[in-house]
Amino acid sequence: MTQGQARQGNSTTSVLGRRLGGELLKLRTAAGLTQGDAGRVLTSSAAKVAKMEGGWVPIRDPDIRALCELYGVRDIGVVGGLLELARVDRERRKAKGWWDHHSMSGILQEYVALESVATAIRSWEPGYLPGLLQTPDYVRAMRRAPLSMVTTESQSDEEFVESRIARQRRLREEPLLTLRAVIYEATLLNIPGGAATAKGQLEELLRAAELPNVSLKVFPLNGGTHQGLNGPFTVVSFAEPGAMDVVYMDAPFSKRWMEGGEDAAAYDALFEKIAVHSLGERESVSLIDQLRKEL
């Protein structure tokens, strides 16, 4: 899915709604039942069930419990994950935040809004530092670099900086966001803006690494090749990691979500493989500190 939200008349889908609907569709199909069967249990129409499975409407907890009962789902963990995802989706649909006052594309705005209600982020970055760890000077230098990534964002440089700073509050303010970030070593050697920007940015990485909710690793230049070198991706969790994850990918000319359970699971597994073959946290911090001292 290349858009965070889609519209059909006055209705709007959401990333979490589609993720939840996809899980319910998979469970219904596995049970060999129709949308009409589900509709009768909910005392509603098959069309209403279709909207639920397409992520077009928020879903109430009693409806999820009734559907799980119909589909023969007894696993408390599975039911709990669906209920939690439904709760976060309902909150997200109602929520208004600072991002509503910033001029950013729909899918980026949806990502920022989801990040604000996420419990954990796993980020792999082969080219840029994670947005949650970028300093204002890094952002300005990145935006003004001659070979800067082509962007369709209409935000001014300073508005873009403000949005980065606003996002980073989740790392230091309750409810704390858990961040596991793996950065390619080449990214640390190619910080835009010169030595002053690089030193300040590396110092910020060291400060962030001291936070109890942040894990920072570096994938070394001699670590070998892997699929993650094709581009960055971020795994966003809203309950227990792996339960109801979605994946966000930001490419030079497109942004898109991976909402399917199997697709998200594949990126989960890829992130863990990259992390395992990266330097340990202490080694990573030592490398960053050494690069800082050499400036």
Would you kindly provide a brief summary of this structure?
This protein has helices at 15-30, 35-41, 46-53, 61-71, 76-94, 106-117, 136-144, 157-168, 185-188, 194-209, 261-276, 281-293, and strands spanning 7-8, 11-12, 120-125, 178-184, 214-219, 233-237, 246-251, 254-258. The protein is an alpha/beta fold and 295 residues long. The chain folds into two domains: 7-94, lambda repressor-like DNA-binding domains (434 Repressor (Amino-terminal Domain), Orthogonal Bundle); 98-293, Endonuclease Chain A (Endonuclease, Chain A, 2-Layer Sandwich).
Plain-language structure description:
- The protein folds into two domains: 7-94, Orthogonal Bundle (434 Repressor (Amino-terminal Domain)), CATH 1.10.260.40; 98-293, Endonuclease Chain A (Endonuclease, Chain A).
- Helices cover 48% and strands 13% of the residues.
- It has helices at residues 15-30, 35-41, 46-53, 61-71, 76-94, 106-117, 136-144, 157-168, 185-188, 194-209, 261-276, 281-293, and strands at 7-8, 11-12, 120-125, 178-184, 214-219, 233-237, 246-251, 254-258.
- A six-stranded mixed sheet has the order 5-4-3-6-7-8, with helices on both faces. It has a two-stranded antiparallel ribbon with strand order 1-2.
- The longest helix is centred in the first third of the chain and has 19 residues, at 76-94.
